Amino acid sequence: MAARRNPSSITSFGSAQTVHQSICRSCSHTIRRRYASTAAAVAEQPTSEAPAPQEAHQLLAGVILSRPPQITRDLHPFEKAFFLYQKRLNERLALPFTRYLYYKKKTPNLLDFRKKLDQRKTPARDIGNYSAYSEHAWHDEPMVGAVEGEIEDVKEKLLTDEQPFPEDEDLDQVVAMEEKVIPDAPMPRTTEADKAGDEKSLNRLLQRTLYLLVKDGKGNWRFPSAPWDGVKKETLRESAERIIRQSAGINMHTWIVSNHPVGHFERPYGQNYITTNEAGATVKGEVTFFMKGRIMMGQADIKESELGVSDFKWLPKESIKEHVHPKYWASVDDILPSR
Amino acid sequence: MTTIRHTHMLFSSIRNHSGKQLTQNASFSTTTIALARSKGPSKHDKRIGLLQQHLWHPLTPRPLRLSRLRQLRHWTINEAWKIFTAKRAHQQRLELMKQWQAMQAACERLRVLGDDGVVGGANTGRLYRQSLDKDGIWAGAPIEYARTLTDWPSKKGWNHEWKRRVVKARS
Fold first, then answer.
1. Before B61, cis peptide (omega within 30)?
2. Is the full-model pTM beyond 0.90?
3. Cα angle vertex A219, ends A214, A222, to 5°?
4. What's the fold here for domain A55-72+198-335?
5. Do A78 and B112 touch (CB under 8 A)?
6. Care to name a GO molecular-function term for this sequence (chain B) (predicted)?
7. HSE of A87 in the Cβ direction (CA atoms, 13 Å)?
8. How close are the terminal C-alpha atoms of chain B, in Å?
9. How far apart are CA A56 and CA A68, in angstroms?
């Protein structure tokens, strides 16, 4: 056993190894590493008789509470053009539409379908007027600045298709089509809150993730955070749930995604703010461990905030950068997804 | 000769257990003669016919004819698309890598800290071990978390008015 071990570790931590020879290799490795960290801390101490006070950090828990995107993202212009291109190529490869499989003969619906088909030349409703069976089948590339493929245009085409053909004079057909349930137009992708620039609303920037940012008692913008409760010995997840409740009220339907932190922020205290805690250790700064949370329903309410929160905002990633301290931003930048 | 006669006997006449000779009267088809002879309406399902017409259409397979320049343009478009998607995938990978590293750094920081905030202090790594506990992490996952992205937002929009139902403790 001893011959296979790293000789340098034997010289440094020989005593630790003699103690833990009866345990497995990975455990002994862990213990060796732990001894190494404490040994490094010991090595830094001056060789005077009185031991220097230990350095401590205050533990904080923070919550990155986010509202997930609600709708699909806007496509890149190249993506739009490429998808339309692919759809039209598919139209060139596809066999003729089997209309009698979908519409019974001599029915108003078939009549309606035929008239619309004559107009747009293809059964596909979202690729514009293009026929893959005519002599102009080669002309499948849309011109520069064409609206085909835009999501708004597709929406219009689909809605128009639901309406009965306008020039219909056939009474039977009109009656039959009147019974058809015509769907309403969908809601717009940009909302009233977007136009108003309401940063407290959760009904805006539906394509993006919004993060809850609060203004603390000192007037600094940050994610909701508070000291970890060492008396109750709570887990970080419990801390996160408590912090949401204490800073922004109970009327938010939230979920903490994981038990472990997704990032951390270290803040050293200035010389005048270094204190000594009850155990005699010097508190040199604070470490905030961020937990990831999601909001499903509800809204923040800071009226009865126990953590002295004076304001809140729901912001996308790039707006957070403008609100927080650059060093704070440096440590949360990597945690937040760009979308 | 005996063997040939024997096989001939096997095919022409099969005897059952009682020794009575059995002869074959019907053809190998299982269709009854009466059904085949009837002049009534066809039992053929039109929907099946339509599906067959679609599957084995005379135009199958449809040719995609592209001129030389058009073919070149098609190749260029596809190369551009490949570069575009590769770049995007690279960006996404980088972003995930950053997130993973931030998570790993935080967990490592937590691992060496004691409850008192001292490196290697009291109960070193206790919070870390609790954090890595995976027991029941999906127990409280709300059903709303399974909502997918849609092209168009809902009519009602975000539910700002949601209130938590407060259950009073029994005294």
1. yes
2. no
3. 35
4. Nucleoside Triphosphate Pyrophosphohydrolase (3.90.79)
5. no
6. structural constituent of ribosome
7. 20
8. 107
9. 36
Angle between helices A171-178 and A108-120 (to 10 degrees): 100
Q: Is the ipTM of this complex over 0.95?
A: no
- Whether residues B34 and B85 share a domain: the answer is no
| Count of H-run helices and E-run strands, chain B | 5, 2
Which segment of A33-47, A134-148, A310-324 scores lowest on mean pLDDT? A33-47
In a domain, B65, yes or no: no
pLDDT in tens, A187-215: 999 999 999 999 999 999 999 999 999 99
Backbone angles phi, psi at A46, to 5 degrees: -65, 160
How far, in Å, CA of A55 to CA of A280, rounded? 9
Q: Which chain B residues are within 8 Å of A126, Cβ to Cβ? A: none
Residue A149: half-sphere exposure toward Cβ, Cα within 13 Å: 22
Q: Do A259 and B164 touch (CB under 8 A)?
A: no
In chain B, the number of structural domains is 2
For residues A192 and A244, give the distance between their C-alpha atoms in angstroms, rounded to a whole number. Answer: 27
pLDDT tens-digit profile of A29-58? 666 666 555 555 555 555 556 677 789 999
Structural tokens at position A143: 């011109």
User: What residues pair up with A315 in beta bridges, in sequence order?
Assistant: A211
How far does B145 lie from chain A, in Å, by closest CA? Answer: 7
Residue B123 Cα, gap to closest chain A Cα (Å): 11
- Domains in chain A: boundaries: 9-43, 55-72+198-335, 77-179
Q: Which residues of B touch A39 (CB under 8 A)?
A: none
Q: Do the domain assignments include residue B116?
A: yes
Determine how β-strand A55-67 pairs with β-strand A282-298: parallel
B164, A251 in Cβ contact below 8 A? yes
Q: Which of residues 71-110 of B touch A (CB under 8 A)?
A: 77, 80-81, 84, 95, 98-99, 101-103, 105-107, 109-110
Residue closest to A247 by CA, chosen among A271, A269, A227, A225: A225
Residues in chain B predicted with pLDDT less than 70, given as ranges, are 1-42, 171
Residues from chain B that touch A57, judged by Cβ atoms under 8 A, are: 113, 117-118
The answer to whether the Cβ–Cβ distance between B155 and A187 falls below 8 Å is yes
Q: From the CA atom positions of chain B, what is the Rg in Å? A: 39
Inter-chain residue contact A37 with B101, CB threshold 8 Å: no
Helices in A121-257 by DSSP H: which ranges?
A: 151-162, 171-178, 192-196, 236-248
Q: Is A41 within 8 Å of B117 when comparing Cβ atoms?
A: no
User: In A44-121, at which residue ranges do the beta strands (DSSP E only) sit?
Assistant: 55-67
Which of A98, A189, A236 is facing B131, going by the closest CB pair? A236
Q: Is A10 helix (H, G, I), strand (E, B) or coil?
A: helix
The band of A144, judged by pLDDT with boundaries at 50, 70 and 90, is confident
